[in-house]
Design brief:
The structure holds two protein chains of two kinds.
Chain A (H helix, E strand, L loop, with lengths): L7 E3 L3 E2 L3 H5 L58 E2 L10 E4 L17 E3 L12 E6 L5 E4 H4 L5 E8 L5 H5 L8 H5 L2 E10 H8 L7 E6 L6 E5 H7 L1 E6 L2 E2 L9 E3 L12 E7 L6 H4 L4 E2 L5 E3 L7 E6 L12 E9 L5 E7 L7 E2 L1 E2 L9 E8 L5 E9 L8 H6 L14 E4 L5 E4 L2
Parallel strand pairs in A: 6-15
Antiparallel strand pairs in A: 1-2, 3-4, 4-5, 6-7, 8-9, 9-12, 10-11, 10-15, 12-13, 12-14, 16-17, 18-19, 19-23, 20-21, 20-24, 22-23, 24-25, 25-26
Chain B lengths: L28 H17 L17 E2 L2 H7 L14 E3 H11 L1 H4 L25 H7 L7 H4 L3 H11 L10 H14 L8 E3 L9 H4 L1 E3 L1 H8 L3
């Protein structure tokens, strides 16, 4: 280890991101060598022996056949979505969280994408599904799935986040010992492909007084939301594909509305009807559950954007730093519903000093952005923080700054800085900084 | 015989109308390649371009949607009463329906949960609630009450008719949906138990949540319109 090459970036061991490459530091020296750690023998060279003894079982037998649809390794079975305990599946209002601390890069596997279902998941026969567009249009039209598949499509990489993500930290008086998944796993990143909605609205034509669109799903509860037409004309799409395959039932098969950067609830799954209007409908979710209660008791409606936010996913809640005074790569995710991430700063001393983290490419608008920074932990108790800034200059607030705007029980659109407490024994725990 | 997959890409006859847009919204090289491909394909049948370059080929495969079809599906009720059906129901009738079909999820008096609270201005984490700690532990996503937050009574009718009861959505008659709406308004002191609700009288209700409402829409409109 050539310590002379380590360049400090901020207090308490944050290092310049090039430190790893330049110094050649080993992350750890204590990891197990497993099967390859067998003592060197001379068996390989003896005339009456095979080389088998040197190798693990899986190098001495033919592998198994593959399957039609691949699954993760049997050794990764613990990487699963987490059902929020407060929303039992039996109630059909279910909230499944993505294991974001297990993810690298900016794409969440489709099967691990978070999902919130207000009335269960319908199994829709695509041959019987129709998308209707009517209301303040010149020509009311319907589109079957087969026709929609013939349209030119675009593909985009975006995050999707539930308005209620990280609600626990917004309202819980004391920090709960939860993982990144449990706290902030109602957020995922995917490549979505489909038809820009403006293509279809061009086809129907729009009346001069058209201002809103009521989007409705074909689920049991006919989930519906009112969305400003200008946003839908800007960058919304009827999404048919997610991560290279047709959208899964829990994401809206055969099609969903995708509204980049805006709260998940507007991204209506199982989309079957778009009613163009001059007024919002004040649907169930925009009447209560997805509103913000301001500090003076007023109810703020139609706050659609998911604001600039970040969190360190490694190390994060319920994890353990295995080696005292070891080198670790801090890694996390940042995103903003307003555009691209411009900067993520990390603090390893509870906010006294900050260093800019390295942003991994691609840095895309309204997409997850991966950040990393090397850290040498000195083994003492500390708090890790990350703070994101987007291209509009919006800065992630502290928890206190966020809570100052809202009533104590308002929980939507929380984007406060996530603090992880590091204990001397290496235990990482959610804290309030 | 081999079953052939029905091709779902563009065929020449499907490019029946071509709309040329001066501004390409998608600038990725992938999409340009796709456009070029479409352009070359289009040349085989109908060559359409302006100023020497077709930037956008518009497919138009939508089928006309008839008035009858629209009426069958347009179930959204607006605050001004648009789409409210005929029919009527009394709060007293609603009470019976409620006990049979709703109380098991919303609680006997609309405040117990576990599903969304329907009544009361105490909302979510009421400090007067003797079971507050238990509720937060057991049901931290109990919803903010209808009586406290919802700005329009039309939404109650809309949601009951489209989504309730949870195990059999869309099964209630219009009269029953009016009766249940009336009962929820009665729970919130907005109607007498003897009152009847119909598409006229529902518009006379002023929900407590309306006066407290403020919209963030103006801010977001300005942001969206930025170049």
């Amino acid at each position: 280890m050539r310590k002379a090459f380590l360049k400090t970036a901020a207090g308490n061991g944050l290092l310049d991101r090039r430190s790893f490459l330049q110094s050649g530091i080993a992350l750890s020296t204590s990891f197990s060598l497993g099967a390859f750690a067998a003592p060197v023998s001379d068996l390989n060279t003896a005339p009456n022996s095979s080389i088998a003894a040197s190798f693990p079982e899986w190098m001495k037998t033919p592998g198994r056949a593959d399957t039609e649809y691949g699954q993760p390794s049997i050794y990764e079975k613990q990487v699963q979505r987490h059902l929020q305990k407060s929303a039992p599946e039996a109630s059909l209002f279910s909230i499944w969280h993505t294991p974001i601390e297990n993810q690298r890069g900016i794409i969440t596997p489709s099967g691990l994408h978070f999902t919130v279902n207000h009335n269960g998941i319908p199994d829709i026969d695509p041959q019987q599904h129709v998308l209707m567009i009517h209301g303040l249009v010149d020509k009311p039209l319907k589109f079957d799935v087969e026709s929609l598949m013939r349209y030119p499509m675009v593909s985009v990489i975006h995050f999707l986040e539930c308005a209620g993500n990280t609600a626990t930290n917004a309202v819980s008086l004391s920090p709960l010992d939860q993982s990144a998944q449990e706290l902030s796993g109602q957020m995922s990143g995917s490549e979505w492909a489909g038809i820009p909605l403006k293509y279809l609205l061009k086809e129907t034509g729009l009346k001069a007084n058209a201002k809103w669109v009521i989007a409705e799903g074909a689920d049991g509860g006919s989930h519906s939301r009112s969305i400003p037409l200008d946003k839908l004309q800007d960058d919304a799409m009827v999404a048919l594909y997610q991560n290279g395959e047709r959208i899964r039932p829990s994401q809206g098969y055969p099609m969903r509305l995708f509204v980049p950067g805006w709260e998940g609830n507007l991204n209506v799954k199982w989309l079957h009807r778009l009613e163009v209007t001059d007024q919002p409908a004040y649907t169930k979710d925009e009447s209560g559950l997805y509103s913000d209660i301001l500090d003076d008791g007023r109810i703020q409606r139609f706050s659609f954007h998911m604001d600039v936010k970040s969190l360190i996913t490694r190390p994060s809640g319920k994890q353990l730093l295995p080696e005292k005074k070891g080198f670790y790569e801090i890694s996390g995710l940042a995103w903003s519903g307003y555009g691209k991430i411009k900067q993520v700063e990390v603090s390893a001393d509870g906010g006294k000093t900050w260093a800019p983290a390295h942003l991994e490419g691609p840095i895309l608008p309204k997409s997850l952005t991966r950040f990393t920074i090397p850290w040498r932990w000195n083994g003492s108790e500390t708090v890790l923080l990350s703070r994101a800034t987007d291209e509009l200059g919006r800065v992630q607030p502290t928890r206190d700054q966020w809570r100052d705007q809202y009533a104590s029980y308002s929980f939507n659109h929380y984007n406060g800085i996530q603090a992880w407490h590091i204990a001397r024994d290496g235990i990482v725990e959610n804290c309030y900084g | 015989m081999v079953d052939r997959i029905r091709l779902t890409t563009l065929s020449t006859e499907s490019i029946s109308a071509v709309v040329l847009m001066r501004k390409s919204v998608c600038t990725t090289s992938l999409f340009r390649t796709l456009l070029l491909g479409l352009f070359l394909w289009g040349m085989q049948s109908t060559l359409l371009f302006a100023d020497g370059a077709a930037e956008w080929l518009m497919t138009d495969l939508g089928q006309p949607l008839s008035k009858a079809e629209i009426e069958r599906y347009e179930i959204t009720i607006f605050p001004d009463g648009t789409n409210l059906p005929d029919g009527q129901g009394a709060a007293a009738q609603g009470k019976v329906l409620y006990q049979n079909q709703c109380a098991m999820c919303h609680g006997k008096s609309g405040i117990e949960g576990p599903a969304a609270r329907l009544a009361g201005s105490d909302g979510w984490f009421s400090f007067e609630d003797p079971l507050r700690v238990l509720r937060i532990k057991e049901y931290p996503i109990l919803l903010i009450s209808v009586g406290s937050m919802w700005p329009y009574a039309t939404t109650i009718f809309d949601y009951i008719r489209r989504a309730m009861p949870h195990h059999a959505p869309k099964s209630l008659h219009n009269d029953e949906a009016y009766a249940l709406t009336a009962y929820i308004l009665y729970m919130n002191d907005q109607l007498e138990e003897s009152s009847t609700l119909d598409k006229q009288s529902i518009l006379e209700i002023t929900m407590p949540g309306k006066a407290r409402s403020v919209s963030a829409k103006e801010q977001i409109t300005n942001l969206v319109e930025q170049p």
